[in-house]
Amino acid sequence: MKKTRIVIIGVGAVGSTTAYTLLLRGRMDELVLIDANHAKAVGDALDMNHGLPFIGGTKVWAGTYEDCRDADIIIITAGAAQKPGETRVNLLKRNVAIYESIISEVLKYNEDGILLLATNPVDIMSYFSLKKSNWPVNRVIGSGTLLDSARFRYLIGEELDLDPRSVHAHIIGEHGDSELPVWSLANVAGSEITLSEEAKNEIFTNTRDAAYQIIEAKGATYYAIALALDRIVTAILRNESAVLCVSTLLDNYHGVSDVYLGVPCIVDRQGVRQVLDIQLSEQEKELLHRSANKLKDLIQSISE
Predict the structure, then answer these.
(1) What's CA 271's distance to the chain center, in Å?
(2) Cis peptide leading into residue 121 (ω within 30°)
(3) Based on the domain organization, do 132 and 187 belong to the same domain?
(4) Which of 71, 97, 134, 264 is such that its CA lies 20 to 30 A from the CA of 196?
């Protein structure tokens, strides 16, 4: 039987935490770590290997792009940090250049895997990755608003004193400041969530700004995004047909096209099998268009 192989490119805080999460949960037979700082990848692999007597079952090593051959899923978390005085557009251009280089190397060895992208701004990076790879859109997936939706569900659960797993609610659009809550469909066991407008506004603000709060407190976010990536990986490898808010290329989605945004999708062994055309209120549609237009403007500025 073919062994399941996952490659993680970029083993900074997000990449290494994702690797450890996947290892603990036994998601694959082989785990390959690739980083421009090869010594860091070697150290992470060695550290994880020392834990194998406690969990067993997985081969872990620091590899090269050649190890992308036969990989089922290639997770990319690599990216440049913003320099002092650097504009966001210039940072985006540098990260797009890094991704183009990475994907060029991946394509030398792998034609059939799934690209799972987590570097921010993830929707834009996913869009350029699709264009660079020329792979089918279902196999180029951004982590999207899955984490945002989890934060949203957690905060609603806290307000209602409920297990967040029993809360069904979505954040869609950009994984960033222009994202929007789909309050019109939020429910618990099919029952509408009744909260004051003040409570709703506070919950959404805390959802949208969660990353800023965490970064201010400890410098980076990585635990919850690692769990979100693990959830996507699991849906793919187990062919679950799970509904997850991942980022994919939209085609006339409530009038939005040619941009990656986070929306509910069916995720299985094919990657994104189907984009779900959920019903939105008129206000939600307007906010979705604003989110799409913001990203399109950024894509245009990078392309100039």
Answers:
(1) 13
(2) yes
(3) no
(4) 264
Which residue's structure tokens are 């913001």?
294
247 shares a domain with 176: yes
pLDDT at 293: 97
In a shared domain, residues 76 and 170: no
Do 247 and 145 form a contact (C-beta atoms < 8 A)? yes
Q: What's the one-letter identity of residue 70? A: D
Is 294 found in the same domain as 192? yes
Tell me: pLDDT of 274 over 90: yes
Distances in Å between the Cα of 44 and the Cα atoms of 10, 15, 197, 244 are 11, 10, 46, 29
The residue whose two tokens read 């954040």 is 171
Alpha carbon 46 to its chain centroid, in Å, reads: 26
What average pLDDT does the segment 86-110 reach? 88
To the question of pTM greater than 0.90 for the whole model, the response is: yes
Domain with 237, as residue range(s), is 146-303
Are 159 and 211 members of one domain? yes
Place of tokens 């410098």: 219
**Residues marked as catalytic:** 175
